[in-house]
Amino acid sequence: MGRFVTATDALMDYLSHVGAREHPAQARCREETLQMGRLSVMQIAPEQGAFLALMARLTGATRCLEVGTFTGYSAMSVALALPPEGRIVALDVSKEFTDKARDYWREAGVTDKIDLRLGPGVETLDRMIARSEEPFDFAFIDADKGNYDNYYERALKLMRPGGLIAFDNMLWSGAVADETVIDPDTTALRALNAKIQADDRVDMALATIGDGVMMARVR
After folding, report:
1. CA 124 to centroid of chain Cα atoms
2. 8-28 burial, b for 16+ CB within 10 Å, e for fewer?
């Protein structure tokens, strides 16, 4: 068995300092979201934001999709990495949280790159498919876990061949590896991990970044 890094507090602090280059608006978003108590766990880590930005650049993305925007850190991370013509369609159900996001996006100068659409994610994606919207190059999914499989199937219809879909929380703090944990969210994530691993429509890798990022490249 290979060596694996143990995520100590000291290592997490180190990652926060050297694992990403943050725009001041990203830092403010992260710091202010951390003051939201238990809700703050919905925010990605700075090194995850840097990873998403790098993936967008590596795929040459100009059209990106996000399902689950919260206070805007991930959309901002990707938007900052996009070329001037790049755009993100960001889906969320909360006006309260995304109003905060809009403030950070203005500070970062990326408002014009982000098309925020409020409403249930599955319904919004279905409308996008029905309208035959232009294919996406990169997608990040970080929303309600019970719908992850629904988001996956719809994202597959919206991506171009070679496009990359990234899912957050796919290790679920290790719960997916514990078969005694059978709550609905854990069960849904465990099932999707297995489905993507066996799915010949995509190339895949599950990375131990943040709470686990599953990457599926559309063939």
Report:
1. 17
2. eeeeeeebeeebbebbebbee
CB neighbour list of residue 87: distance below 8 Å, 6 or more residues apart: 62, 63, 64, 113, 114, 115
Provide the β-strand partners of residue 138: 64, 164
Residue 188's alpha-carbon distances to 66, 125, 151, 163, 201, in angstroms, are: 19, 19, 12, 23, 20
Q: Report how far residue 137's alpha carbon sits from residue 63's, in angstroms, rounded to the nearest whole number.
A: 6
118 band by pLDDT with thresholds 50, 70 and 90: very high
Q: What is the rounded distance in angstroms from the CA atom of residue 70 to the CA atom of residue 76?
A: 11
pLDDT in the model for residue 17? 84
Whole-number Cα distances in Å, 205 to 84, 124, 158, 165, 202? 30, 27, 20, 11, 10
Report how far residue 128's alpha carbon sits from residue 68's, in angstroms, rounded to the nearest whole number.
16
Beta-bridged to residue 45, according to DSSP, are none
d(CA 135, CA 70): 24
Instruction: Give the Cα separation of 65 and 208 in Å (integer).
Output: 22
CA separation, residue 147 to residues 108, 167, 197 (Å) = 31, 12, 18
Predicted model pTM: 0.95
Burial tier of 187 (Cβ tally within 10 Å: 0-12, 13-18, 19+): middle
